[in-house]
Structure formats: C-alpha cells, structure tokens
Amino acid sequence: MRLKDKVIIVTGSTTGIGKAIAKAAISEGAKVLVHGLEEDLGLQAIQELGEENTVLHIEDISAAGCPEKLVELAIKTWGKIDAIVNNAAWVVNSDIGTTGKAFLGKVLEVNSIAPFLLIKSALPYLSVSKGVVLNIGSVNAWSGEPNLLAYSISKGALMTMTRNLGDVLPRTHSVRVNQINPGWVLTERERQHKKQDGLSENWYEEIPAMYAPSGRILWPSEIAAAAVYWLADESGPISGQVVDLEQHPLMGRNAPKDPSTIHGKP
C-alpha cells in the first residue's frame, strides 16, 4: 500500500479528477478529506469512497477561512496531515474582451490564491510529517486556448508558485511541492461543457487526431495514477517539478495536415 495511513486533503474532490485522485489514494491506504461545492455530490462521493476512509467539507475554496477549516477538520479527524492536493479550480471561458478586473480577480482567488492559502495553513503540520504538496495545474498554463484567458493566467501563476515553493520549502520545512498539468481529460463536467458549446452527445467518441492522436482523450483515473506517485514516498526528494500529462508534445509538435482526420482517415 503506497499511501498507507497517510492523511490527504484533496480539494475539488466530489467529481472529476479530484474524485479519481481521492479514490486512488484510498485504494493505496490513505484517509482523504473530500471537498467540493455541491453537498449532494459530496455525500454521493463519501458513500462511494467509504465513510470510514473520508470526511467531507462543502464550501467555496475561495471563501474566507475555508483553507483553515479544511486543515482544522483534517487534524480534528485524524490528528495529522501528510499531503494536500490543490485540485479545485474554476474552469470558465473568457477572452480579453470579456475579462474584467473583478472577473480575473475571482478566477485568481479560486485557482491560484486559495491553493497558496491552503499550503500556508497546512504547512506547520506538513513540516511535522515531512509531507507533500501536489498542485493540479493545466497544460493551458503554458499559453492557453483563446477562450480560456483568465483560467490560463491563473494556472500559469500556480505553476510559478509550485516552482518557487518547490525550491524553498524542502530546505525550510522538509516539505516537497510538485505539480502535474493534465491535458484534455474526459471528466463529467467536460462532457457537459462541450455539449453546451454545441457538440453532439457523444462528441468524445470522434475526436480529430490533431487533438487526440490515440483516438481518445485522457481519463481521470490516468491522472490519478500519476498523482499517487507524487504523493507516495517513492518519489523521494523530488521537488519543484511540473509534469505535463498529455498525449502529444505541447511545443514543436507535428500536427496532421488535415486536422479533421482521425488516425489519418476522413
């Protein structure tokens, strides 16, 4: 059991990638604080993951005092914290025309500032356990899609924070900080978002090879499998690293001449 008896806070874990990480962590012996926005989804997740392995907190991660509440609940329930996974994020469309100061500030609060505050709140306990921080970013951190401006900015900030704290905290607090940047992942909400954008019910079954050379996009369980490595002791002293999890290189790739083809066939 690679995470036996470890206590892990996973934000945004009632659905999608966060829920998959919580499930994988529990299967490896961990106890997980499950966090999200919707109580019904949270209660459902607790039932699926097992009440004996979890505790639930429902609140906007950017709400005043939420990071401190997560830390307090984990300590009250299990007496320690071994790792935190900053997964909660607001994925919202915007471009330069629709991104104002208040809107950008809100996206940064959820996607960049709240993760920082959770790290800061948990740091005294992570220092004791010589723990781990795993930030869940996005390949959009490198530049982003045209309609994901604010989101991309926030993930770029998260990536810089990971590299900065990943250099400092091992020396000052014996805490490692790393990040994984998922590419295109088939979460429940991604299915809904693309349908709202006008795509068909089964849009994910026929994706152009330019975007999915393998013929499909990533599954949450595949991101979770990678997360376990960074949360486990087997990743050793590695810190300050950002790993992209996508099925093609992000820069200098050889895209198909006809992006409408799938595996080279119209």
UniProtKB/TrEMBL annotation:
CDD domains: SDR_c. The lineage of its organism: Bacteria, Pseudomonadati, Bacteroidota, Cytophagia, Cytophagales. It comes from the Bacteria. One of its GO terms (molecular function) is cyclopentanol dehydrogenase activity. The keyword Ribonucleoprotein does not apply. This is Cyclopentanol dehydrogenase. It is an enzyme of class 1 (oxidoreductase). InterPro entries: NAD(P)-bd_dom_sf (IPR036291), Sc_DH/Rdtase_CS (IPR020904), SDR_fam (IPR002347). It comes from Cecembia lonarensis (strain CCUG 58316 / KCTC 22772 / LW9). It holds the Pfam family adh_short_C2. Keywords: Oxidoreductase. The gene is cpnA_3. Its EC number is 1.1.1.163. PANTHER family: EG:BACR7A4.14 PROTEIN-RELATED, ZGC:101858.
